[in-house]
Amino acid sequence: MPVPEPAPAWIISLSNASQVASAYGIIVPLGIGLGRWRSLSGPARAVVWYFAFWAVEAVLDYWTRRQHLSNAYTFHLSVLVETWLLGWAYHRALRDARLKSWLLLAQGVFTAVALADATILSGLNQTNQYARAVQVVLMLVYALAYFEQWVRELRARSPWHDFMFLVSVGLTIYYTGSVMGFLTLKPDPRFSQLVAYTTAIVINGAYLIALVLMTLALWRDGRMQPASSFRQPA
After folding, report:
1. Could you tell me the residue ranges of all domains in the chain?
2. What's the Cα-to-Cα distance from 105 to each of 90, 92, 116, 124, 153, rounded to whole Å?
3. What's the DSSP call for residue 72?
4. Is the dihedral of CA 103, 218, 75, 202 positive or negative?
5. Single pTM value for the model
6. Residues contacting residue 201 through CB under 8 Å, at least 6 positions apart
7. Three-class SS of residue 120?
8. Mind listing the pLDDT tens digit for each residue in 180-227?
9. What superkingdom does the record give (predicted)?
10. Gap between the Cα atoms of 105 and 90, Å rounded
11. Number of Cβ atoms within 10 Å of the Cβ of 184
């Protein structure tokens, strides 16, 4: 069996730094959201709950590692809670009742796949490629549905001051940028350290971009919007 290729020290350091930044970076949007809770819109409150969940998950993951246990079960938990909380935000923002009904049905299918992945397909102690694959498709459908709604309404303000538009851009970058990493990242002794750490950097980097955009969205939500060159057609 070939010896796995070792990773340079700077790659390991960058991977660790990006992991810490993505794990503790949620404190900023969570603090902003809690501080401005009363003035937030419905979708924004759902996103604050999303960050609150990740704060709890970080503590759970830390405790699991301290006990020298596998943290793979947290993947199965987080994919379910994450998708439902973000789906809740989209259901508060989308206006087409028929579309929301279909998306709710899709959420049910996703939940069934995620539960099957945790119990039958992969198991709690293995990563959840099946659930991740379905989650990515579902979240991209949500984002595209909101983009389509924004274009159809063509609101008289910049999209960069629209809460769910910013969130959708961030989530699109995150899910498209990290999907291959999640689907291929397995605890395999043949897996090169260099590839493993580089994959982690890509996943964490994509999430940090989404984190910045979602934090900006929370900061701007409910505030007075500046004049924009975007105008509805005559």
Report:
1. 9-220
2. 14, 16, 17, 25, 25
3. H
4. positive
5. 0.88
6. 11, 14, 15, 18
7. helix
8. 776 665 555 445 777 778 888 999 999 999 999 999 999 999 774 554
9. Bacteria
10. 14
11. 14
Q: List alpha helices for 117-192, DSSP H.
A: 129-153, 163-184
Place of tokens 């923002």: 93
Query: How many CB atoms neighbour CB 170 within 10 A?
Result: 23
CATH code, residues 9-220 = 1.20.1070
End-to-end CA distance of the chain: 69
Number of H helices, E strands in the chain: 8, 0
Q: What are residue 154's phi and psi, to 5 degrees?
A: 45, 65
List of long-range contacts for 1-5, beta carbons under 8 Å, 24+ apart: 1/189, 1/190, 2/190, 4/189, 4/190, 4/191, 4/192, 4/193, 5/192, 5/193, 5/194, 5/195
Residue 168 has pLDDT above 70, yes or no: yes
pLDDT, residue 188, reads 52
pLDDT(24) > 70: yes
| Beta-carbon contacts of residue 116 (< 8 Å; ≥ 6 apart) | 130
Long-range CB contact pairs, 34-38, < 8 A, 24+: 36/218, 36/221, 36/222
